[in-house]
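Report of the visiting student (M.T.), summer placement. My assignment was to run the structure pipeline on a short list of targets and document each run. The first record concerns Phenylalanine--tRNA ligase beta subunit.
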Amino acid sequence: MLVSYKWLKKLVAVDVPSKELAEKMSTTGIEVEGVSSPAEGLSKLVVGEVLTCEQVPDTHLHVCQVNVGEKEARQIVCGAPNIRAGIKVIVALPGARIADNYKIKKGKIRGLESLGMICSLAELGISDSVIPKEFSDGIQVLPEDAEVGQAVFPYLDLDDEIIELSITPNRADALSMRGVAYEVAAIYDKAVTFKDFPLTESEQPAADKISAAIESDKADFYAVRILDNVKIAPSPQWLQNLLMNEGIRPINNVVDVTNYVLLYFGQPMHAFDLDKFESDRIVVREARAGETLVTLDGEERKLEPADLVITVADKPVALAGIMGGADTEISDSSTRIVLEGAVFDGKAIRKTSSRLGLRSESSSRFEKGINLATVTKALDTAASMIADLAGATVYAGLVSAGSLKEAETQVSTSLADVNRVLGTDLSYGDIEEIFRRLGFDLTGNAEQFTVSVPARRWDISIPADLFEEIARIYGYDRLPASLPQDAGTAGELTATQKLGRKLRTIAEGLGLTEIMSYTLTTPEKAAEFALEPSHLTELMWPMSIERSVLRQNMVSGMLDAISYNVARKNKDLALYEIGKVFQQTGNPKSDLPNEINSLAFALTGLIQEKDFQTQAVPVDFFYAKGIVEAIFDRLDLAVEYTASSQLKSMHPGRTALISLDGQLIGYVGQVHPSTAKAYDIPETYVAELDLSAIEALLSEDHPFTEITKFPAVSRDIALLLSSQISHKEVVAAIKAAGVKRLTQIKLFDIFSGDKLGKGVKSMAYTLTFQNPQETLSDEEVARYMTKIEKTLIEKVGAEIR
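After the run finished, the structure tokens were exported:
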């Protein structure tokens, strides 16, 4: 709910800073999202009159002479399609600030001097969704009575302040300006002042022209008024300003009045063109299967029997409480209109609105409830305003069906209950004062009193509601504290939680799916894939041997999950789990095990299925290792891989241990074929990482490294080596050369065969050099290569090819 502070001040004599009002409302039960002003950041905008307007040949531009209240007219070049002589416009003078803090300067356009800018509302930061359609593609044309040279801010109400309220369902009474006025009046102990809208009716009874009926229990009341001799025209500037500040686009004087009444009373209304009715009888009923309705947004809606509709000649002309139909829409040629005001069942409106995905200001209010005491008053007010703004004649009387339950709600309680619940020591006089400020009648005494709750506060029905009203007007900050007080701590994720969330994001981005396996397993599986098996932590009274021991690894549980899926024809799997493993280094009968955070993943099946263009690609060691590398790359950690046959359940030739800063933190590789057979699974690759160790080694500081503007230089080198020399040894030898400008080492080719000889292989590398301070010369790079070649010959016995 957007609240115009200028409008609110007319309803309640309150004159405090908007920020203070917002704080006060938030602490008494209605949360304020924020306060803003349409004029914020704008300056030097005045009303100008276009004296002359000449087309610039071969362009869409016009040269205008504009009177801005100075001695001489200003020449301004404007490209708006609706610019013309004789109109009044918004002019931004040189030095002015418009939307996005754009500063207007003197300048030349196509060689023509322009001493300012003629502005549209969009250029003032007004949303396109609320700008009148006639000005949406051009400049804003001001009414003739706009005073030349005066600031546009008060004229367009841009100097208003907009208070955005976050209304909870129980306080739907604040979805109207009158409801907000009552609330502010109670907070500051002020009186509300509501303007009278006198209604003059003709002698012609409305009942002679139309009748109304309700044929559904989803509508309690339906009433209409008929207006004749209506002249459709734009609304006066004050009404357009008010609606735009409230986030509603001005349409015409009739539609704008219905929106005004919606904001003022919280009463949804709709106007029909009476001349488009095919009958003189309006019936509110539920839709029939197969019926359709084209709503005002141009969409054809398929109706269902649960939908409530307004019908004429047994044809739907509106979705009750949601949106009118296009066939009876008010147009520029409309002269006779029907105004409706009604009470519909909120649940029915909500169901239809949700099913159709059609939310409106009207539907949101019917869903939460409306003030039954002002339904007819709102209808009379709308009729009075249209008669005033559109020169309409109002037929005598309302035509209605159903009834309104306008009686006040009686709620009783006692002073003792109030003080017991709130922990206060209020007197009966305090209670009387609070309900006087709220505008509620009070009868009785301290032992038992009854509050007459007006219909505008339909959220109050039980004593607990009264206690809440007393507490918030008395002041929540004044309620005595009865619980122990302690300084709170700011909620924050721990380092472990942050790492876990980051790893989940990485793993799922790599195509892995999270699972959760059992923490309890068998004694054999508990230590099967553990790098450092420890004492088993056994349950004293296990339900079964399969769930008797705390796990020391997560891989065995993941293999159980893979076996379960493979047996059910789900063969392509990429799973991961983040959880705890338990290492018992003390007495297993008396000491608790250490809990170690771990990450494990398992892969089996195909990476890519076979199709008419490509062959099937199965999971292999390098794909699993690539996932590990991607994880550590995102964590900005450099790890080392060492081939190992340490784990008996892993393939001895396709398993690598992973080390970080010399500390063993995990492994990656293929499950041993015999182990896979025991689990009844196909070829499977797994990895497990010690997250507790990784967390301890993570650096919290990530220093900024400037991207150098000097180019890198690459050189390829091919080596003839013994087949026993590993890639790791070659990289170590290259680094041992101590070339500080070497930034990357990349292996791009390995070759072995009879042509090279037995026990010999060829390895080719791309070496990248870069100096962040200057461009490297060929001589420098040549020296680096010579140094590296010498080290390779000495360290690994390489022959440079």
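The longest strand covers residues 43-55. Residues 552 and 581 are 5 Å apart (CA to CA). I thank the supervising group for their guidance throughout the placement.
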